[in-house]
Amino acid sequence: MTFEEALEKEGRIIHTNRGVSMRPFVKEGRDVMVIEPLKEKPKKYDAVMFRRENASGGKTAYVLHRVMKVLPGDVFYIIGDNTVSGEYVKLENILGIMTYIQSEDREIDCANDARYQRLVRAWWLVYPIRKCLLRARGFLGKCKRRFVGRA
């Protein structure tokens, strides 16, 4: 069953995250997310699940990332919490919005938990610094791989 079918039939998707792009808010293999259909257009800082057409191997990929800009024409700039670059997504490719996160020690109502919302905003306030650090880490990793082989 596809995510679209599950949303239509069940009214929500309950899914364990795979990947690290939404750390630190959603951790791979630990956290369970609840995705519900959109009731209104997503807003800045909403975490949405969208369909990425023609991903690797020509397959459709389903991605959970955060809305950072709402643009004219129902287009959204979306980026993962733990990534340095984002992408533009049309409203028609957005399947739903993350409404809850459940882990071993916490349950978060994404729309109504003021602490969670403050943490998300603070995380994105320091994005320029995080971006520089992530790029530096990537550069240093490339240097290490290149020169360690010559030692």
Tell me the number of strands.
Answer: 8
Would you identify the regions where 5 or more consecutive residues have pLDDT less than 50? none
Residues in helices, as a percent range: 25-40%
What is the domain total for the residues?
1
One letter per element, helices H and strands E, the order comes to HEEEEEEEEHH
End-to-end CA span: 51 Å
The CATH top-level class label: Mainly Beta
Overall 3D form: globular
The CATH topology annotation reads as Umud Fragment, subunit A
Strand content: 25-35%
Structural class: alpha+beta
What is the second-level CATH architecture?
Answer: Ribbon
What's the number of helices? 3
Oligomer: single chain
CATH homology superfamily name: Umud Fragment, subunit A
Largest sheet: 8 strands, antiparallel
Rg is 17 Å
How much is the average pLDDT? 91
Brief overview:
With 151 residues, the chain is an alpha+beta fold. It is built from three helices and eight strands, in the order H-E-E-E-E-E-E-E-E-H-H.
